[in-house]
Amino acid sequence: MKYRDLLHKKNRKGENKSYKAEAMDNCKPWFGEDSEHHVVHEAGLDTTALHALSRKGLWGLLFFLLASVAAFLNQDFNLYQTFPEAVLQILGCPPPAILIHLALTVYSFTVVVPVLIRMSTGDNPVVGWHHSLYRSVFCLFYLVSTTLPENFFAMVTIGILLYAVEQVGIWSYMYKHLRGAEVSG
Questions:
Q1: What average pLDDT does this structure show over 136-153?
Q2: What is the model's pLDDT at position 45?
């Protein structure tokens, strides 16, 4: 096992420069001969993939804002009164606003900390659709607890700030690697 790894590493040392040139040659049919905006990095992400990741985050923001507006338009609707009495016995009382605030705070830290860690270590940025769903669920939580009118702007502001943190992570990664490619090449 170790011998194979050493042999593989030895073969990679001489091929490192040719590998980068080969990767650029493979991309030329897609982006043209003189494309300066398409740079392949050692980590495997290129600028088009980073732009796609950024657009994916933008679609997530749009989904979150649409869910927030839909919840705001239905803020007078009491979801708990629509359930039968047997279901209400199982569910219990609606959650108090302080517990929803606490859950939103914990969720915010679970989004911000990994983004900051990826930014400091230089790892690839990650944006998932599940975060749009999580942020939209908080609209439902506030709607169920009937505290949406008081907390709507705070909830939307936190959602937009979390989106902004993700975008800063993507753009700082892109800037760092584009700047590194510009300096080295």
A1: 91
A2: 62
